[in-house]
Amino acid sequence: MNQTDMSVLIVDDMPKNIQLLGSILKNEPVDIEFATSGREALEWLNAKHFDLILLDIMMPEMDGFEVCRRLKENPGTSDIAVIFITAKTDIQSMVQGFETGAVDYITKPFNKSELLARVRTHLTLQHQKRMLEDNNALKDKLFSIIGHDLRNPVGNIKTYIDAFLLSGIEVNDEVKSLLKDLSVLSEQAFALLENLLLWAKNQSGRISCKPVKADITVIISDIIHLIQNQADNKNISVIKLPMDRTEAFFDPEQISIVLRNLVWNAIKFTPGGGSIQIGIRDTVDHGKSYVRVEVTDNGIGIEAEDQNKLFDPQYHFTTFGTNNEKGSGLGLHLCREFVEMNKGIIGVNSEPGKGSTFFFTMPK
Length: 364
Hints:
Layout lengths: L6 E5 L3 H11 L5 E5 L2 H10 L4 E4 L8 H10 L7 E6 L4 H9 L4 E4 L4 H55 L6 H31 L8 E4 H18 L3 E4 L6 E4 L1 H17 L6 E11 L2 E10 L6 H4 L23 H11 L4 E6 L3 E9 L1
Parallel strand pairs: 1-2, 1-3, 3-4, 4-5, 7-9
Antiparallel strand pairs: 6-8, 9-10, 10-12, 11-12
């Protein structure tokens, strides 16, 4: 699409005014149509899409305010930009024009250069809006492909590999080792796709937070079971510290994603033979009680200047793990967004060469 695809409808009950406006716009790269009444304008709008309407206010039977109100009430025409062109100069009429949905207001007699400048500005804005809508539609299609055509097959690959490993079929140690590596790699690929989809949905406002009173210890146990194969592959022990049933208010699905990402990161940056501990404790902030979840590893740690970048969406911060595991850089951004949606905070304490503790809170 280019700007020559743009179209303008001139609406005025005075043919001379239509002629004048048409002569001013005749050299512009736009398609121009006209109507001499409000009803004729609405008929045009039912038959063709317009990007901009130059609309007179004072017309018999149906004035410009009513025309504008009707097209803004119609989902099929509500996005059309309207510029009122009228001899009415009182503030009340101007305010009424903007309240009915107009984007601009030009009084007669108008200046040719001013009118052209305003028409070009609003056509450019409409053009950019259409391009953005097209790009968003393409992006939604791409994410749909990722969600359905990639996510499911990747998940199935891991399922089939794990089923084979559990089947008891005899294979030599080298093949078994390769299959375990494939299982871990497919799990990582699935996690990357999952994070990408969740981040995209959250950015577009399609994810809502639904906190309920739930037991966080159940979520922790589920996550440990989920990542056990990946931890075993690096000979890393994942330890759930002694904890009693602890309830807090949170969205179980979102917090499960947060905890899963934090534990996966801990495995990623902990060398073989290391350990990861998951614990909880009560904390108070500004007089309010919270549950604080901590994921502590004895991995490579994080430099002080990099710690502030981890959760900052302005930075795309990602590094390879101790076994050259790759990441998308989206995981921690997603964690921050989900924790904040659940009225908590997220942070990290780390020392290079000694390990890291990632933590987040949830209201009790």
